[in-house]
Amino acid sequence: MKKRILVAPLNWGLGHATRCIPIINALIDEGFVPVIASDGNALTLLRKEFPNLSSIELPTYNIKYTKNGRLFKLKLLKNSPKLLKAIKAEKRAVSSILENNDIAGIISDNRLGVRSKKVPSIFITHQLNVLSGNTTWLSTKAHQKIIKKFDECWVPDSDNAINLSGKLGHITDFDTPIKYMGPLSRFTKTNSKIKNDLMVLLSGPEPQRTLLEKKLLIKLKNYSGNVIFVKGIVEKEQTIQVYGTITIYNFMTSALLEKTINESALILSRSGYTTVMDLAKLSKKAFFIPTPGQFEQEYLAKRLTEMSLVPSCKQKDFTLEKLNNTNAYKGLKALDFETDFKDLFSLF
């Protein structure tokens, strides 16, 4: 009998789900049977990618952003009872799943309550340090306390001096075993002919995703080049709308997304870590607009700009003219790292 492994990404944007795609494929290649567990858009996307795999809906965290990014930390604090309630519901759901299914291990991508003492439980995160401004020490301590309840922590980055996550994914000492699995991406670089001058990739929690969508669609009316605009809204059917030189998709599956990014000269997106990993794998030039109030994205954008790799700006400051600066930056490059999935999965 092949061992069944529960793979549970957080539904927070699409990044946690998409970076689990190469893990799910590797599990299949190594003779395991993945069982997908998530909620919302993350679950919908993975069901589209893996229609033949079993899937289970988990309780939702249901955390929303504020329209004012500066108030997000306050709203998170206010919603903490709701978050704790969701984690408890998650734990109950996992207990039920283990009782009714033959599960040999758990891989949780940032789902805080998806673990069990009955089977090996892995936590995936690129945030060993959780940035939150003047409360970074507290958010980091709380996150690390949760990580220590898992058997291992896998970090999707390199542990070398040249890495993608910077201080987010690197600490000097930690009780739980940490394994650096290398940057994860579902994509493969091709030498495709460039067909699109600009590709916009949106994702992330509401209402900030919609706010940026509306702002960019207004600004891009005056853009002279060819634009592919992906809203990042996973729906039952794919829709395509054409307005002049702008082609708008509600979402793209992995194969089409890989092809289109390879065929695009410049990517405009949030600076979420999964997006950074994907664009590095494809060696793309980019422009980043971090989600307002999300310290992690603001740090990554600032770090990559200071390294002369990718220009960035605040959402309120974006203008089309800023895209002209991208030629002065090197763009992202793939790290020379081969993920040893056989070693990682040996815990199961």
In short:
Helix content is 32%, strand content 16%. It has 348 residues and is α/β, with parallel strands linked by helices.
What does this structure look like?
It is a single chain. By secondary structure, this protein is α/β, with parallel strands linked by helices. The protein folds into 2 domains: 4-184 and 338-345, 3-Layer(aba) Sandwich (Rossmann fold); 198-328, Rossmann fold. 32% of the residues lie in helices and 16% in strands. It has helices at 15-29, 40-49, 72-78, 80-100, 136-147, 208-219, 254-262, 273-281, 295-306, 341-345; strands at residues 4-9, 33-38, 55-57, 103-109, 121-124, 152-155, 178-180, 198-201, 227-230, 240-243, 246-249, 266-269, 285-288. The strands form 2 sheets. A 7-stranded parallel sheet has the order 3-2-1-4-5-6-7, covered by helices on one side. α1 packs parallel to α2. It is globular and about 60 Å long.
Q: From the alpha-carbon coordinates, what is the Rg to the nearest angstrom?
A: 20 Å
Number of helices: 10
Instruction: Tell me the overall shape.
Output: globular
Based on DSSP secondary structure assignment, what is the total number of beta strands? 13
* CATH-defined superfamily of the largest domain: Glycogen Phosphorylase B
CATH top level of the largest domain is Alpha Beta
Strand order of the largest sheet: 3-2-1-4-5-6-7
Derived structural class: alpha/beta
Largest sheet: 7 strands, parallel
Q: Cα distance, first to last residue?
A: 14 Å
The proportion of residues in beta strands is 15-25%
Domains, number? 2
| Oligomeric nature of the chains | single chain
Helix content: 25-40%
